[in-house]
Automatic annotation (TrEMBL), chain A:
Residues 97-113 have a biased composition (Basic and acidic residues). This is Pyruvate dehydrogenase E1 component subunit beta. One of its GO terms (biological process) is pyruvate decarboxylation to acetyl-CoA. It is an enzyme of class 1 (oxidoreductase). It catalyses: N(6)-[(R)-lipoyl]-L-lysyl-[protein] + pyruvate + H(+) = N(6)-[(R)-S(8)-acetyldihydrolipoyl]-L-lysyl-[protein] + CO2. PANTHER family: DEHYDROGENASE RELATED, PYRUVATE DEHYDROGENASE E1 COMPONENT SUBUNIT BETA, MITOCHONDRIAL. It comes from the Bacteria.
UniProtKB/TrEMBL annotation, chain B:
Pfam families: E1_dh (PF00676). The pyruvate dehydrogenase complex catalyzes the overall conversion of pyruvate to acetyl-CoA and CO(2). It contains multiple copies of three enzymatic components: pyruvate dehydrogenase (E1), dihydrolipoamide acetyltransferase (E2) and lipoamide dehydrogenase (E3). It comes from Falsiroseomonas algicola. This is Pyruvate dehydrogenase E1 component subunit alpha. Residues 33-329 form the Dehydrogenase E1 component domain. GO terms for molecular function: pyruvate dehydrogenase (acetyl-transferring) activity. Its cofactor is thiamine diphosphate.
Length: 457, 349
């Protein structure tokens, strides 16, 4: 004897109306026969028999409303071939109660690995890499890729104009000559397609570097970056990683208007399963890009077009590399902490210089990594200065500054002597006109003013 | 061979009198695998009805010949990728029924430890790369699997399945272009089951012959009777040979049919009961194979009964396992977000 149960016919159905029986008692039923019609919360659905046999009795007459899912609605005299009902060895997986979710989430927050320790440790000193030389950010990025491509045949560069054209911004200059067209691969203008293709290749263990001519074009491919690259490891229970780098210039360049001047820092930093770095100096660029290429996870490297031509001192050591997830204190100070990343670190350094002239000692933190965020270094600094200004080029709303401020609230609220202040790009699409563009981006005097606000000077 | 026009759809059963294009052992294996998928999916539908499986659950019932026929053409090392109607592909590539069913019930014994569900399972060992929930995304990823084969020059081919609904996505055409441009060993298989959710192909595609969708890039295509596992295998062999020889991608449009709704909560009002019934009665891939084994290959009923029983036992075992395997521990919430990379920057600080 097999019982036919009231089936759940949608993810949200808990009960339904047994609208009509299409089989009578005594009738023979084959698997696949429609036996009844049920009105769910969404629609009227036909119920097909799974088991075979003779319908011996109908337990719930047609027209009955509010029949709970899993209520026996009929009995079947199973023939020899009838499937046995599924065993009920334990209560049939009860739907978790609402409070369970909250409980789990709360526990999860406690268990979050990146929670900052209550007592901040003394900072580990930045490793001394020995002699340095002056080099542009552009060359540093190229050298990072060349070094990693020499080290592993699994590493290749793919993107628009990366090969024969030598890079739209000349980042890949010389790479085609050294590594050939199979490892420096020119793509048609088809970001969605080639990003998906690179992600698929990475799932087999290859290590693609995907160059977006600018990160603005990554929006064409953002589904593949988030839904395929970032989430597959989790969805596969840890089986299928995606060692891939997405890199290119991010944020405003100069006079290229709204569609080509946008900061993607908070877009990508929002997503678990990704790492996001934003280098400022040549050393940042080389050290972080090398780490990104070696990383077994998908890493977003947000570069900046204006920085490409700027020159910095960089260690000459062959094995120079920087860890992802560590910020750098670029300038020590005692009165206020200025947190910035990418090109805005330069502005923060200028502001610190200007403030020093006015007797205010500013500490400048170069975040380097936006996900994971080095909250420990920020908190340690704020415990010392008791004041913080965040600085970024992107939009203020739900920006990186918002996250930094919230981390401060959660980790060292009692150490604050003033509310945090953020300096960010204006909350508008980027204008083209030279004067308007200048006004839309953070300016030196705004940073200085912000510092004065938090220091009550 | 390349520009094969629409092949004559095969009628019921195999050509009698002609040399059957498949061996007895292969057809027996195909029958067994198709039956396993059918019974597995019926059981999944039953467990869904009992509330043991949640969320989306897209059944493959009716389309079994497509993936089973293609699988007969592949070798270890070849890859398979598909959308969210994926249970059949997993079983066909040799993944364990237990692990698949336990994933459907969201248990630790599932292929993804219960963290992926019906649409997201993977097995690198069996060459199965998912299991993807965004319509069309798996096509670019599949081109990427083929790209990896091209890059490594390892002779493997990637079979990329998608529905006729997905065939209208922009990235599908980007991927066809890329595959043709780089001569990637990629077999694009359109499983045309006539309905993208509730929208019939006539209402969705201006292209009436989807096998020609790769024509602008010179990708050879065929229309195949996807309800006939022998026809699928024959076309699959041509496609695989083309790809392995380094000639680039190949496209197969499988004319198939799903008997069940798009997902479990589909009232299926966009087609008539008679249409479904007619397809089941006249074109069912399992019935066709069964008849052929009995009539043309001299297989005894009792031999098929042994297979039926074996399949039934596997499915029942998977259902038992899927209900007794525990739910994932709460600690699993935070695992597998990122791979630990402590070894990456040894020279860091």
């Amino acid at each position: 004897m097999t019982q036919i149960l009231m089936p759940a016919l949608s993810p949200t159905m808990t009960e339904g109306k047994l609208a009509r029986w299409l089989k009578k008692e005594g009738e023979t039923i084959k698997a696949g026969d429609v036996i009844a019609e049920i009105e769910t919360d969404k629609a009227t659905m036909e119920v097909e028999a799974v088991d075979e046999g003779t319908l011996t009795s109908i337990l719930v007459p047609e027209g009955t409303e509010g029949v709970a899912v899993n209520t026996p609605i009929a009995e079947l005299d199973g023939g020899a071939g009838a499937a046995k009902p599924a065993p009920q060895r334990e209560p049939a997986a009860p739907a978790p109660k609402a409070e369970d979710h909250a409980e789990i989430a709360a526990k999860g927050t406690d268990n979050r690995p990146e929670t900052v320790p209550a007592q901040a440790k003394a900072p580990a000193p930045e490793k001394d890499w020995g002699p340095t030389k002056a080099i542009t950010v552009r060359e540093a990025l190229r050298d990072a890729m060349a070094a990693e491509m020499r080290a592993s045949k699994d590493v290749f560069l793919i993107g628009e104009e990366v090969g024969q054209y030598q890079g739209a911004y000349k980042i890949s200059q010389g790479l085609l000559d050294e590594f050939g067209p199979k490892r420096v691969i020119d793509m048609p203008i088809t970001e969605h397609g080639f990003t998906g293709m690179a992600v698929g290749a990475a799932m087999t263990g290859l290590r693609p570097i995907v160059e977006f001519m600018t990160f603005n074009f990554s929006m064409q491919a953002i589904d593949q970056i988030i839904n395929s690259a970032a989430k597959t490891l989790y969805m596969s229970g840890g089986q299928l990683g995606c060692p891939i780098v997405f890199r290119g210039p991010n944020g405003a360049a100069s006079r290229v208007a709204a569609q080509h001047s946008q900061c993607y820092a908070s877009w990508y930093a929002h997503c678990p399963g990704l790492k996001v770095v934003a280098p400022w100096s040549a050393a940042d660029a080389k050290g972080l890009l090398r780490a990104a290429i070696r990383d077994p996870n998908p890493v977003i490297v947000l570069e900046n077009e204006i920085l490409y031509g700027q020159t910095f001192e960089m260690p000459t050591a062959d094995d120079f590399i920087l860890p992802i997830g560590k910020a750098k204190v670029e300038r020590e100070g005692t009165d206020v902490t200025i947190v910035a990343f990418s090109i805005m670190v330069g502005l923060a350094m200028q502001a610190a210089e200007a403030l020093a002239a006015q007797g205010i000692s500013a500490e400048v933190i170069n975040l380097r990594s936006l996900r994971p965020l080095d909250t420990e270094t920020i908190v340690r600094s704020v415990k010392k200065t008791n004041r913080i200004v965040t600085l970024e080029e992107g939009w203020p709303y739900a920006g990186i500054g918002s996250e930094v401020a919230m981390q401060i609230m959660e980790n060292c609220f009692d150490d604050l002597d003033a509310p945090p202040v953020r300096v960010a790009g204006l909350d508008i699409p980027m204008p083209y006109a030279a004067n308007l563009e200048k006004l839309a981006l953070p300016r030196l005097e705004q940073v200085v003013d912000a510092v004065k606000r938090v220091t009550y000077k | 061979m390349a520009e094969t026009a629409a092949r004559k759809p095969r009628g019921k059963g195999a050509p009698k009198g002609n040399e059957p294009a498949i061996s007895k052992s292969e057809l027996t294996r195909a029958y067994r695998d198709m039956l396993l998928i059918r019974r597995f999916e019926e059981k999944a539908g039953q467990l869904y009805g009992m509330g043991l499986i949640g969320g989306f659950c897209h059944l493959y019932i009716g389309q079994e010949a497509v993936v089973v026929g293609m699988q007969l053409c592949l070798k270890p090392g070849d890859q398979v990728i598909t959308s969210y109607r994926d249970h059949g592909h997993m079983l066909a590539t040799g993944m364990e029924a237990r692990g698949v069913m336990a994933e459907l019930t969201g248990r630790i014994g599932g292929y993804s430890k219960g963290k992926g569900g019906s649409m997201h399972m993977f097995s690198r060992e069996k060459g199965f790369y998912g299991g993807h929930g965004i319509v069309g995304a798996q096509v670019s990823l599949g081109a990427g699997l083929a790209f990896a084969n091209w890059y490594r020059e390892d002779g493997a081919v990637a079979v990329t399945y998608f529905g006729e609904g997905a065939s209208n996505q922009g990235q599908v055409y980007e991927s066809l272009n890329l595959a043709a441009l780089f001569k990637l060993p990629c077999i694009f298989v359109i499983e045309n089951n006539k309905y993208g959710m509730g929208t019939s192909v006539d209402r969705a595609s201006a292209s009436k012959d989807l096998s020609k969708n790769g024509a602008p890039w010179g990708i050879p295509g065929e229309q195949v009777n996807g309800m006939d596992v022998i026809a699928v295998r024959e076309a699959g062999e041509r496609a695989v040979a083309h790809c392995r020889a380094g000639n680039g991608p190949y496209l197969l449009e499988m004319k198939t049919y799903r008997y069940r709704g798009h997902s479990m909560s589909d009232p299926a009002k966009y087609r008539t009961r008679e249409e479904v019934q007619k397809m089941r009665e006249q074109n069912d891939c399992i019935e066709t194979a069964r008849r052929l084994l009995l009539e043309s290959f001299g297989v005894a009923e009792s031999e098929l009964k042994v297979i039926d029983d074996e399949v039934k036992a596997i499915v029942q075992d998977s259902a038992d396992f899927a209900q007794t395997s525990p739910e994932p521990d709460e600690s699993e919430l935070w695992t597998d977000v990122l791979i630990d990379d402590s070894s990456v920057v040894a020279g860091g600080r």
